[in-house]
Amino acid sequence: MKRFRRTSILLTLIVFTSSLFAQTLSPKIAFSETEHDLGNIKEDGGKVETVFEFRNLGQEPLMIKNVSSSCGCTTPTYSKEPILPGKSGQIRAVFDPINRPGKVLKHITVYTNASPEPVILTLTGNVEKKAPTIIDKYPYSFGDVRLNKSHVSFLKMNKNEVKESRVNIINTSENKPVKIEFIRVPEFITVQTEPQILQPGQAGVINITYDASKVDDWGFILSGMFMKQNGQVDYNHKLSVSVTIEDDFTKMSPQERAQAPDIVFENTTFNFGTIKQGQKVEYEFPFVNTGKSNLILRKVKASCGCTAIKPEKSVIAPGERSSIKIEFDSRGKSGRQYKTVTIITNAPNHSTVILKIIGTVN
To answer: Cα–Cα distance between 47 and 219 in angstroms, integer?
Structure first.
C-alpha cells in the first residue's frame, strides 16, 4: 500500500514537472500596454496610428496567427514573421475618426500560438465633431446653388388636407446672382423661393404647398418639377415631391361604419409556378362587397408594366361579386418573380388591399 502511494506521488511530480517545463518552453507574449488613450482628436484631423509593442518572454518562437478589429474604422497590421524568444514585435492600429464623433471604444483581438489567447487590445479617446461645411449643410448640388434635400415627402394626407414644407437653398457662386424659378409644377403644388434672386453666398428657402383636394388620384403619388436658374433649365436638376393620399376614416361614427362598404377577396396571392420566358399567364382575383353601400375601386395599380389589370367595374353594389383580372407578361423576365397589385377603395376596413403574383421564369 505504501509502495502504491509512493508511486502515485512520483507520477504526480513527473506530470507537474513536465507541465511546468512545457510552459517554460512555450512562447509567451507580453505587451508594454494593452490599452491606449488617443485623447481628444479632431474628426477632420486625419487618421491616427497607435503602436502596441510586445515581447516574446517564452522559449519557443511566437507566431501572430490573426488580428481583428471591432469595426472597419480601425485597421490593424502586425508582425507576420515568427518572433524568436526574447525578441520584440509590433501591432499597429490605424483609427479613422471621420464621421465618428464622440467617445471612442475600439477593441483589437490578437490570436497567437501562445497561451492564454486571445489578447484584447483597447483604444479609447474622444473625437471632436468637425464644423459643418456648406456641403454638409447643403449636400445636393443644383448648378450654381445647393439644396439641403432634393426630395420632399409629405407622408400621408387626407383628401381635403393642405400641407406645407420647405427646402433650404444657398447660392454657392462667387460673383453671380441667381434667379430661381420652377417649371412643370403640378396644379396641386405651389412653389415659391424666398428671396427669388439669391446673391452670391446668400441662403434662402423654397416653400412648397401641397393641396390634396386638387389631386385626382389616390395612394402613393410622386411628382417632380425642374429648376430654372437665370432663365436656363437643366433637366438633371429635378426636385421631387411625394405623398400618400387616403381617406380619413377616423371621423366616421359607428353608425356610418355599420353602413359602409367592405371588400373581401377569396384569396390575395396567385402562384403561377414555373413558366418559360415569353409566356403570359392570366388570373382573376374574385371579391365581394360584403358591406351595406356601394364599394368604389378608387385606384388599381400594378408594381410594374408587365402586369396588366382589368377591373370589371369600379362601382360594386352591396352583395355584388366582381373580380380583378391580371395578365403577367414574362418577356424580358427571368428567375423568381414577385409582383403586386394595389387596390385602393372607400371601404374603411380594407381601404388598401395588396394582391401578390409570384412564380419563376426560366
So the answer is: 48
DSSP H stretches of helix in the chain: 2-25, 134-137, 254-258
3-state secondary structure of 181: strand
pLDDT of residue 12: 44
Cα 309 from Cα 314, distance rounded (Å): 12
pLDDT 10s digits, 98-121: 989 999 999 999 999 987 779 999
Q: Is residue 14 part of a domain?
A: no
Task: Give the domain CATH number at 143.
Answer: 2.60.40.10
Q: How far apart are CA 180 and CA 46, in angstroms?
A: 38
Under DSSP, is residue 45 helix (H, G, I), strand (E, B) or coil?
A: coil
Instruction: Round to whole Å and give the CA distance between 251 and 286.
Output: 30
Domain boundaries, position 281:
250-361
Yes or no: say if 107 and 52 are a contact pair by the CB < 8 Å rule. Answer: no
Please indicate, yes or no, whether residues 108 and 201 belong to a single structural domain of this protein.
no
> Which of 128, 152, 178 is at the close of a domain?
128
pLDDT tens track for 291-343: 999 999 999 999 888 887 888 889 999 999 999 999 999 999 999 999 999 99
The total number of structural domains in the chain stands at 3
Contacts of 312 (CB under 8 A, 6+ apart): 322, 323, 324, 325
Q: Which of 227, 177, 167 is nearest to 202 (CA)?
A: 177
Q: What is the distance between the alpha carbons of residues 298 and 347, in angstroms, rounded to a whole number?
A: 10
Integer Cα distance of 153 and 132 in angstroms: 24
Given this model, what pLDDT does residue 276 score? 95
Cβ atoms 147, 238 nearer than 8 A: no
CA distance 198 to 174: 12
Residue 49 contacts residue 134 (beta carbons within 8 Å): no
- Which of 128, 145, 179 is the endpoint of a domain? 128
Confidence at 11, pLDDT banded by 50, 70, 90: very low
Instruction: Say yes or no: 241 and 261 in one domain.
Output: no
Is the residue at 110 inside a domain?
yes
